[in-house]
Amino acid sequence: MTTTSPDSKPQPSAAYLGIIRTIDTFTEWVGYLFLLISIPLILANFVEVISRYVFDDPTIWALDITTMAFGAMVMLGTAPALVKGAHVRTDMLWDKFSDRKKGLIDTIGFAVFFLPTMAVLFFISIDDFLYALDINERSNSGAWGPALWPLRAVIPVTAALLFVQGISELMKSWWAARTGEFLVKHEKIEV
């Protein structure tokens, strides 16, 4: 897992880096694919505004499409956000820790809390999705009554993507805990 370079700093093996890069690249491309969900979100809102304010005839479906597309976009965007380091941290505490301590905290967090939680979420939500698909569950929030199983499918897909990306993050954290150096430096994202 470790090779030594001429400057005597430990270097991860090509296979170790290959696994991390493969997972990170996969997650980033999946994130770009999920950006396509913004198209029905924008179109539904555009049609609703035109229908409501120009023709004085609101739609019965735009609210459901908007809610489902936005919910799916937020959920499916969590794994790409994880690869970019965009999730919330308590910076006033976190910035004071050394890279080794940050790596140790993240390693414990991913191994003990994150990965098991994503596994449980996946197995619980896959049953809910399959049941919704079996009974063709529909929304009762409006007259349109769209199928809910596509939205229910988002939860296990999100959990699976987060689990896979969590493996990459665990590997990066483990490296930082062992060597005191992060393999990837994330830029600070201010909101």
Describe the SSE topology.
Blueprint: E1 2-4, E2 10-12, H1 14-34, H2 38-54, H3 62-76, H4 78-84, H5 91-94, H6 99-135, H7 149-179
Antiparallel strand pairs: 1-2
Helix pairs in contact: 1-7, 2-3, 3-7, 4-7, 6-7
3D structure, described in words:
- With 191 residues, the protein is mostly helical.
- It has one domain (13-179).
- Helix content is 69%, strand content 3%.
- It is built from seven helices and two strands; from the N terminus they run ββααααααα.
- It has helices at 14-34, 38-54, 62-76, 78-84, 91-94, 99-135, 149-179, and strands spanning 2-4, 10-12.
- Strands 1-2 form a two-stranded antiparallel ribbon.
- β1 (2-4) and β2 (10-12) form a beta hairpin.
- α3 runs parallel beside α7.
- It is elongated, with a radius of gyration of 21 Å.
- The two termini are 37 Å apart.
- The relative contact order is 0.16.
Arithmetic mean pLDDT: 87
Q: Within the largest sheet, what's the order of strands?
A: 1-2
Number of strands: 2
Helices and strands, in order, run as EEHHHHHHH
Low-pLDDT stretches are none
Basic shape: elongated
The assigned structural class equals: mainly alpha
What proportion of the residues is helical, as a percent range?
Answer: 55-70%
Percentage beta strand: under 5%
What is Rg?
Answer: 21 Å
How many strands, which pairing sense, and closed or not: the largest β-sheet? Answer: 2 strands, antiparallel
Number of helix segments?
A: 7
Number of domains: 1
Distance between the amino and carboxyl termini = 37 Å
